[in-house]
């Protein structure tokens, strides 16, 4: 086998295989060419027939090489995972999708050689693609995404974390009205304008990740709340321009279950109260390093967020009284993370209340 990644696609002549993963495999791996090595790594779960591999009957070696001449004639793949495979190239992707036009999921996470040429090939061949993961593919831009958005109308999930994209890319992506999951973490050039594009046409969105998109403001949250009312998971960590007004808009997201607000340093208890009152289905809330959040926020959570199961309030300005009230009110709460509070005695007091409540629950018939 030559030391080129595209040769691994020869494995796709396996009968009835619908999913293939080569995560973290590189061409330099000594076991890369061998079926046994791939199986031991958990990359192939189905048995290969000798006819599929074009192996002569007189060959009995357990370490069987892939045949470079074997044509991919039975490509039934629906999902291929190539996450962190450093040898993946545009040419390899082109060869893959030309033979596997029924692919629903393509994972190219951290395949940093991939460019718009690969996206063009995917767009030309995979018309029913539903999931595309491109995290840390820094060589792609809005031109490649325009092709994807135009040619893949069924796209439901796309991960563009750390791709350095801007609002122009989101303007194209907004054509994908079937989008359910959109991950844009670390794309610091994205602003309110880009999110307005998404909000205007992606009303089926249920998960949005804006981690460290620090140009986002309250205006974006207003657009989001108006256009994407089905959102269940929202990550706004380190979007430090957001203030209580923005969280007030989130209060209209009645289906919201998971909200990450880590390090929103300008948010205080009023904003948390708005979320607690409006988002009755909230299950997980992360307020770590929201330094200005105080007991007012906890009191609102205690009264309204009755389904809350996980809460992180490390580094928040809360007291033992607020913690005690929270713990005594939220009977569904399973996990609370709280470190670096001002008063160790307050924390101990809250922990004692929590222990007492758990003991009471255990005593119930």
UniProtKB/TrEMBL annotation:
InterPro entries: FBXL15_LRR (IPR057207), Leu-rich_rpt_Cys-con_subtyp (IPR006553), LRR_dom_sf (IPR032675). It comes from the Eukaryota. Residues 84-328 form the F-box/LRR-repeat protein 15-like leucin rich repeat domain. Coiled coil: none annotated. Gene3D superfamilies: Ribonuclease Inhibitor. PANTHER family: OS12G0552700 PROTEIN, PARTNER OF PAIRED, ISOFORM B-RELATED. This is F-box/LRR-repeat protein 3. It comes from Zea mays (Maize). The gene is FBL3_4.
